[in-house]
Specification:
With 371 residues, the protein is α+β, with helices and mostly antiparallel strands. Helix content is 41%, strand content 23%. 39% of the residues are buried.
Length: 371
Amino acid sequence: MYYKDDFNVTFKEESAFYRYLDDVEKRAEWFRAQSKDLKVEAVTKDSICSPIGNINLEYLKEDTLKNSGLMIKTPDRSCYLGISAVKSLKGRARIDGKALAELDKETLAYILNECLKVSKGKSLLRFCEGKVRAVLSGDEKDYSIMSMPEVYTIAGAYIYSDFETAAFKSGCADHNLVNATWELRDQRLNESYQELLGRYGKTFNGELSASVRISTSDVGSSGANIFYTVSANDQYIILGETLKVRHKNCKGTEDFNQNMASIFEYYKAAVQEVLQLCDIWVNHPANAMIGVMKQAGFSKKLIAETVERYRASAGEQPCSAYEIYCGICDVISIARQQETNERGLLLLEEKVAACVNRRWHELDIPGEIKY
């Protein structure tokens, strides 16, 4: 069922994760075509794509009709378009806007074709699991192919060699992103955390554990990114993204390799960024929490549950934005109790991390605020 646009898979064993990456790499294909030669069509019950081995074309068509509703043709082949490719295709056509999502498929295909006719250069298409999954720039200065198995092999090698104890925790993949998380234990993690806390007049005497997540995409959704979280005294703190290596300038994998050599330094930078919230004083913490979480895109239900949990433990006393941020991190444990899947939890973590750089002072307002 890999061909389905809503396909996703999780892994608890590292060997199974790497086997999956290798298998996908063997089945996938990259090819280039002149952008002006691309033609987009709305899929109908009579649509026919180029033959594909080991995949039922009727099932493939049915899944496409439920999702993108489009197919893309080059001078050499006709392919159904995966939903993950829609954003990048619009990018190649140099159009965007919410109104495009409201158009019927025939009108959308017409607009895309008119724009592609005047596009210059080549497009790089990724064909995987029966569909085109991305339509990217064919210029390596704009997009450089990074081998997914190679990225994670490099990541694992550095993680196991740089930390005292490291263990694969989980992996997950869909047609947009791949993520893998390792749990870490190292005296340096404790020492640097204590040192940075001390700069803000805070102390920590417990045992700290950390996890590092490597996230990347081969459809243009993401570069190769490092994402940290820590657990200290039963408090789960999301440190967020500390490194983004873009698929650009012909050396994305080379850049990632060089940056992984400094993986511990990125941990310290992530801790420092979150602890800077200690310098921001908030007089109306619950209201600021509501405002920050609304801006980050959390659901009303999760905002309400997180804020009420915070109020129950901390009350309404003024505090630093750091304390409020730690309260926002509790949204992950709430989501776990609601049996949110692994992919959903990762998306929530990214929303939490985005809260760090919000304009806290502007959201520190009195009165009653609705969720």
